[in-house]
Amino acid sequence: MSHIITPDICDAHPDVQVLEPVFLNLGGREAFCGPLRTLACFEDNALLMQMLAEPGDGAVLVVDGGGSQRCALLGDRLAELALENGWVGVVIHGCVRDVDVLAEMEFGVQALGVHPRRGADNGGGQRDQPMHMAGARLVPGQWLYADNNGIVIAETRLPLE
């Protein structure tokens, strides 16, 4: 993977969308990119587990957890599952847990915060649908670029120097 520096991407491609600066970089892979897939689920990670068990093919899963800070949608076991299945990372508009383990994994994780309690597993949610999150319109197939400076969304894969 080429070196990702989101400020340079923004300078070279002023048409990219930039997600609001509300996410913490919590994974061991500080910079990551890939075609994005989407999931909307509120305090329920059953559909998240199902998606991460499928081949990721180098994609980044963007999860709209409604901004909830009452439970975690992802922890070390789901991150391990994602890695095993070829996902590059996740961006969660909600919380994660097991952050000490996540920080040691070669996996991209950005989230609003940390919570020790896991989410429910009732199976609610919608996958692979366009959504609005953190001030941006996200459509499956767009490209997501993330690092310690922020998260940008491009319509297509960008040439990185």
Description:
The protein is of the alpha/beta class. The protein has one domain: Ribonuclease E inhibitor RraA/RraA-like (Glucose Oxidase, domain 1, 3-Layer(bba) Sandwich). It is built from 4 helices and 12 strands, in the order H-E-E-E-H-E-E-H-E-H-E-E-E-E-E-E. The strands form 2 sheets. Strands 1, 2, 3, 4, 5, 6, 7, 8, 11 and 12 form a 10-stranded mixed β-sheet that branches. The radius of gyration is 14 Å and the shape is globular. Pfam families: RraA-like. InterPro entries: RraA, RraA/RraA-like, RraA/RraA-like_sf. One of its GO terms (molecular function) is ribonuclease inhibitor activity.
Report strand %. 25-35%
CATH superfamily: Ribonuclease E inhibitor RraA/RraA-like
Determine Rg (CA atoms, Å).
14 Å
Regions with little confidence, pLDDT below 50 for 5+ residues: none
State the domain count: 1
Shape call:
globular
What would you say the CATH architecture is? Answer: 3-Layer(bba) Sandwich
**CATH class category label:** Alpha Beta
Topology:
Elements: H1 6-12, E1 17-18, E2 24-25, E3 32-40, H2 46-52, E4 60-64, E5 72-74, H3 76-84, E6 89-96, H4 99-102, E7 108-114, E8 126-127, E9 131-133, E10 136-138, E11 143-147, E12 150-154
Parallel strand pairs: 3-4, 4-6, 5-6, 6-7
Antiparallel strand pairs: 1-12, 2-7, 3-8, 3-11, 9-10, 11-12
EC number: 4.1.1.112, 4.1.3.17
Cofactor: a divalent metal cation; Mg(2+)
Protein name: 4-hydroxy-4-methyl-2-oxoglutarate aldolase
